Each structure stands twice: as structure tokens, then as C-alpha cells.
């Protein structure tokens, strides 16, 4: 099937008496190739891609930042009685695998419904710091970690999501380990260093950050500086991401399925990696 505009290109080419048949078909083929070329920074689709679910199952048992249940479900309708099943949810925006919108840390930031759809389907760059986090629960993904990734894989793709793989997702079945709260009430889990965050804002064109922990900031942070910098710059963040160990360091595409709720500061997300 000829792509839109292809027939016009052929007609114009044929109208030139001196144009050879070879040049006619070259013109048409060139137009088609241009029409379907992927946007810069977006991985081209290819047959046979795996779909990897990066989402933890939401439940009342999933760990949350403040320890309160992230969701409560009340049955409103029952099949035997009403002819169909229906639940009402009471939901914390920032529980389970979820997105932080800029509005979460800025009164002037955009809400979830204002995030452009094209910024939610992006290249995914996975920075593996699991070995370092295994010996230091307070580990912060650093500027050096980003530099090491670029030495191996090249420059971080434009409009990408940079994801920290700390190995923490496997602890989500153990709330005490996942939260890491000590006797003084301080949490201990890995996060992204504010210096690395500032560098990504200034030196790279990145759409989002993602972590496999409760927060973009490490658990022992007192000022949530990464949140302040990143969300304050108009970008989004993902927390409690699952299965990053199943995604290649480079080359995958992230798809963020997000409820479009007016004025929301964030919300649970269904995340997929196409790899």
C-alpha cells in the first residue's frame, strides 16, 4: 500500500519527461522511507520484541512510604445479587508502581493529565548498580555510574527514561527489608544522587527517571533534593518499578500506561518494556 503522499510523488516524477523509470521508483521509495522513519530518540519497532511487565501487583500489602495501605477496595456490586461485579477503590496516588508528576513537588508543575502522551513512550536506559547496593543500602546512583554506562553504550538517548536497577525490587515481599527503617525511624534503600540528577537536567535531554525503590531519593534523604530538582524541572519520575533485571541496559522502549486524572499529582502506572 502506498503511504500518504506517495502517489503524488510518483505523479510529479512521471510528469517530467526526462526522468527515468529508475528515478521514478527511487523517488517513491525515498518518500515512503521518509514517511515511516522513527522520530529521533525513539527506538524503531521490530518484529518479535518481548513485552516485559515492569509493574508490581497493587494490593493492600504492598509497602508504602508512610506505612499506610496504598489501596482499599470496597465491594459495591456482586454478580449473584446484582448481575455484575464492581469495586470502589480508595487509592493513594503515590503507592505501588506509580508516576510522580511535576505537580507533586511544585505548585506550578503540570499534573498527570497534562503530561504529553509522546513523552510516555520513550527509550529506556537501565543503570545497573545492584552489586553496589547489595553492600550499601544507602547507595546513591552517581555521576560516575552514568559515565560508566555511556562509556559502554554511548550517549544516553534523547528523551529517554533513565532507570536505576538496584536489585531492590526483589525485597518487595519483605516490607521491613524493602523500607529498611531503623530504630531511629530512618529508612535505608538506594536512590539517585542529586548531583547526578542535576547533571542529567543540564547536560542531557532526559524525559524521566525511574527507580526500583520507594523513592527517587535514597531512603535516608532529609531534603528530597532529587525530587525537588527533577520534578521542579518539569519532568516525571517512576517509583517501585519491577523486573528491571529482565531488561537490557540499552535498546528497550518504555511504555507508561497512566490514568489521565485531572489535577492529579501522580498515579499508579502499568509499565511495559519492549525489548
Short description:
This protein has helices at 6-14, 21-36, 79-82, 130-135, 143-153, 175-179, 194-203, 225-232, and strands spanning 51-53, 71-77, 86-91, 98-100, 121-128, 140-141, 160-165, 191-192, 206-211, 236-239, 252-258, 266-274. It is an alpha/beta fold and 275 residues long.
Structure commentary:
The protein has 275 residues and is of the alpha/beta class. The protein folds into two domains: 6-36; 51-274, Glucose Oxidase, domain 1 (3-Layer(bba) Sandwich), CATH 3.50.30.50. Helices cover 25% and strands 23% of the residues. It has helices at residues 6-14, 21-36, 79-82, 130-135, 143-153, 175-179, 194-203, 225-232, and strands at residues 51-53, 71-77, 86-91, 98-100, 121-128, 140-141, 160-165, 191-192, 206-211, 236-239, 252-258, 266-274. The strands form three sheets. The protein has a seven-stranded mixed beta barrel. Strands 2-3 form a two-stranded antiparallel ribbon. A hairpin with a 7-residue loop joins strand 11 (252-258) and strand 12 (266-274). The longest helix is centred in the N-terminal third of the chain and has 16 residues, at 21-36.
